């Protein structure tokens, strides 16, 4: 809806009303058309101001309407009518002007913004482009390079930057609507021809072809297969090379392709999934809206290695006081230097003062006595972690929430070492912890709603996308990673190379393939875990056949590389070779290829031709199958949790929605049929055996992913 009133005698004030972000639903669009007509037809009205209710201008098109039978007036003619008006129309921008909201403002003759407002054309993040004239008006207003930057990245800008770029005409720190009304009165009666952006020529840019070629190359590289950023460049190119109306035709044509694409569906699913995980709940009845978090002012971190340092930085940057603990003086000093450096670099990037005084350092665990919450990040060693939790339980004040950053050890077992197991949860950060957005908050059967809510709230304060997950080996992300890695190893045994496997996964859209990723994170990490699990014994020592462990097919390839001291980038050799220890540019390693040949010969394996499709099916469907098991076990509340974990923590291409969304797009019957096929070929690999939930979903008609929660509930109640 849009409300109309008259203010200051001669200004027609139009207020968009569609909480919470005044999205341009059919009713709002109709409201705008009607009220603009009324204002323009009223002889007493000399100028018009458009604002949004509750201090929010407009969040753009109503995304919930996409994919439905969109009725109501179209945005393009609506905005065109505003621009063509013979009375000045001023946009009063408070809060946000995003997507269609900014396009509406660009159709107005003037824009007045509050200093705290954010503006942008984020359509590309939803798999779309700004198709209400945004790709044609913005370059005409601010020039091609700046418009390309905003439109292809979907970046939000501040009012100050908008003023500098010329997107807005005035910025105010006080009442935006009053300022806009005053502005409107000051321009009433003045000629408007020079204020209609669509009539502007696109500012000249030298060597346009080279500019677009360069941008297109960069965009293709970073898009990892996403089509919307490329269409955005094409649309801006139309603005730079064609008259406005022809440019609009091109914008429409490109949008038509994007609008119905699977990528747009995936990205819009991801938008809502990210919000859905914020409405978390646990089987014991803890919920986002009823469980009250404890206030956390002082946090402590135990163990200042790779993870602890990043966690301390993220906590300090979120404004908390941090007590950082390391047992050894030397490590403590090194950590202090590293944390200070990270804080300084981060502050420089953000143009703020570094929060150095927020962090205090100690080698005595008793220093954490006053902390409201402690995050343990010592070595992945259960015996050590047990000791630390017993100590924490003894020294912390009553009510302190105790968290572990373990990658997959039993949180419940750690809780049982303390006096208050209900106050123990996992806070599983991802490396580097001050950069990566994902946080898995792991609850055990005894974790109290308050402890879960406290960790979730803290994650939010730290700017993380937090997902509540149940306690199981590897939680969600790492549990699903296991069958994925396992398939990659098996594929090498059967004839593939690391280059082939990585190529398939990178072409799918991962930033790096599984072998490059292993080299980056260190092959020794998994080796240590496999040793602790009794899997990575030296070949032959177990008395079992080398490729069978604990009754299942096992590939010792990773262990054999580690025995050679090949730990990946850190040692300059792994699945690839690097120019030096710590080098980052991977190149194919002839040693590795002859090693693989020798290994196959030793085990009587005959290399066969493996294609990219098989690599994808084996690796991704095994991972997805584990996702179904996780859903079946009730470790997460719904498929959105898994998808968000994979998109934000594991580089799953966002334009493919996440593994469970992807499975739904591929078709559950197809995933089931291919898993059955691969399991038949490899009956000794349990991870390829289709999970019973997948079978049950297929039997119930393969519902789309947004209906799985409901179907899951129904299926579970029938058991
Ligand atoms: C706005 C935010 C920055 C707010 O953030 P925050 O305060 O953190 O709150 P949130 O929790 O994110 O949001 C609160 C609540 O609001 C919901 N919401 C937010 N934005 C929208 C929206 N735009 N639409 C609907 N709902 C929205 C959100 O989901 C939350 O609710 P909940 O899920 O219930 O919890 C932040 O929310 C944000 O960033 N929002 C997105 C802003 C954005 O991306 N805007 C751009 C939208 S796309 C757009 O505007 C496109 C266009 O304008 C083009 C118009 C053309 C369309 C015409 C189509 C014609 C196609 C032709 C093809 C024909 C094909 C054929 O031939 O058939
Ligand atoms: N490295 C990674 O990518 C990730 C690791 N994790 C988990 O985070 C934890 C830490 O891992 P990293 O930081 O990689 O290990 P790390 O080896 O880099 O650091 C561990 C630190 O703990 C310190 N430490 C050991 N005992 C201590 C004690 N009793 N008191 C105080 N400090 C002590 C060590 O001196 C060392 O600095 C592990 O549980 C790991 O599984 C979780 C996510 C990602």
From TrEMBL:
<keyword id="KW-0443">Lipid metabolism</keyword>
<comment type="pathway">
    <text>Lipid metabolism; fatty acid beta-oxidation.</text>
</comment>
<keyword id="KW-0511">Multifunctional enzyme</keyword>
<dbReference type="GO" id="GO:0004165">
    <property type="term" value="F:delta(3)-delta(2)-enoyl-CoA isomerase activity"/>
</dbReference>
<keyword id="KW-0456">Lyase</keyword>
<dbReference type="Pfam" id="PF00378">
    <property type="entry name" value="ECH_1"/>
</dbReference>
<dbReference type="InterPro" id="IPR036291">
    <property type="entry name" value="NAD(P)-bd_dom_sf"/>
</dbReference>
<keyword id="KW-0560">Oxidoreductase</keyword>
<feature type="domain" description="3-hydroxyacyl-CoA dehydrogenase C-terminal">
    <location>
        <begin position="474"/>
        <end position="578"/>
    </location>
</feature>
<keyword id="KW-0576">Peroxisome</keyword>
<dbReference type="InterPro" id="IPR006180">
    <property type="entry name" value="3-OHacyl-CoA_DH_CS"/>
</dbReference>
<dbReference type="InterPro" id="IPR018376">
    <property type="entry name" value="Enoyl-CoA_hyd/isom_CS"/>
</dbReference>
<dbReference type="Pfam" id="PF02737">
    <property type="entry name" value="3HCDH_N"/>
</dbReference>
<dbReference type="GO" id="GO:0003857">
    <property type="term" value="F:(3S)-3-hydroxyacyl-CoA dehydrogenase (NAD+) activity"/>
</dbReference>
<dbReference type="InterPro" id="IPR001753">
    <property type="entry name" value="Enoyl-CoA_hydra/iso"/>
</dbReference>
<dbReference type="InterPro" id="IPR008927">
    <property type="entry name" value="6-PGluconate_DH-like_C_sf"/>
</dbReference>
<comment type="similarity">
    <text>In the N-terminal section; belongs to the enoyl-CoA hydratase/isomerase family.</text>
</comment>
<dbReference type="GO" id="GO:0004300">
    <property type="term" value="F:enoyl-CoA hydratase activity"/>
</dbReference>
<dbReference type="InterPro" id="IPR029045">
    <property type="entry name" value="ClpP/crotonase-like_dom_sf"/>
</dbReference>
<dbReference type="GO" id="GO:0005777">
    <property type="term" value="C:peroxisome"/>
</dbReference>
<dbReference type="InterPro" id="IPR006108">
    <property type="entry name" value="3HC_DH_C"/>
</dbReference>
<dbReference type="GO" id="GO:0070403">
    <property type="term" value="F:NAD+ binding"/>
</dbReference>
<keyword id="KW-0413">Isomerase</keyword>
<dbReference type="Pfam" id="PF00725">
    <property type="entry name" value="3HCDH"/>
</dbReference>
<protein>
    <recommendedName>
        <fullName>Peroxisomal bifunctional enzyme</fullName>
        <ecNumber>1.1.1.35</ecNumber>
        <ecNumber>4.2.1.17</ecNumber>
        <ecNumber>5.3.3.8</ecNumber>
    </recommendedName>
</protein>
<comment type="similarity">
    <text>In the C-terminal section; belongs to the 3-hydroxyacyl-CoA dehydrogenase family.</text>
</comment>
<dbReference type="GO" id="GO:0006635">
    <property type="term" value="P:fatty acid beta-oxidation"/>
</dbReference>
<keyword id="KW-0520">NAD</keyword>
<feature type="domain" description="3-hydroxyacyl-CoA dehydrogenase NAD binding">
    <location>
        <begin position="299"/>
        <end position="471"/>
    </location>
</feature>
<keyword id="KW-0276">Fatty acid metabolism</keyword>
<comment type="subunit">
    <text>Monomer.</text>
</comment>
<dbReference type="InterPro" id="IPR006176">
    <property type="entry name" value="3-OHacyl-CoA_DH_NAD-bd"/>
</dbReference>
<feature type="domain" description="3-hydroxyacyl-CoA dehydrogenase C-terminal">
    <location>
        <begin position="615"/>
        <end position="702"/>
    </location>
</feature>
